[in-house]
């Protein structure tokens, strides 16, 4: 499972930060950061979701008010949102 985070879309509500500890607030620019991720394209970051964090990852994606977080299964199919 993989998480994709569009940082440009993020509006800094930080709900993801409350739901999954791989998101951290960057209060200087009012956006979240996805830790230990790699930048796939400009302002789009990805990382693998550990098996024990699948629920947290899905929940973080569901609570994002602007759908800046997308979860994909191992076959590349979108699961959330």
Automatic annotation (TrEMBL):
Pfam families: Fer4_15
Keyword set, alphabetical order: Electron transport, Iron, Iron-sulfur, Metal-binding, Transport
Gene3D superfamilies: 3.30.70.20
Molecular function in Gene Ontology: iron-sulfur cluster binding; metal ion binding
Sections of the chain in a coiled coil: none
Regions that span the bilayer: none
Keyword DNA-binding: no
Protein name: Ferredoxin
Organism of provenance: Halovenus rubra
């Amino acid at each position: 499972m993989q998480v994709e985070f569009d940082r440009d879309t993020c509006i800094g509500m930080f709900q993801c930060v409350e739901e999954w500890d791989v998101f951290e607030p960057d209060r200087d620019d009012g956006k979240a950061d996805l830790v230990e991720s790699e930048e796939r394209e400009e302002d789009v970051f990805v990382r693998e979701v550990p098996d024990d964090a699948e629920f947290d990852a899905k929940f973080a994606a569901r609570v994002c008010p602007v759908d800046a977080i997308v979860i994909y299964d191992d076959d590349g199919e979108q699961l959330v949102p």
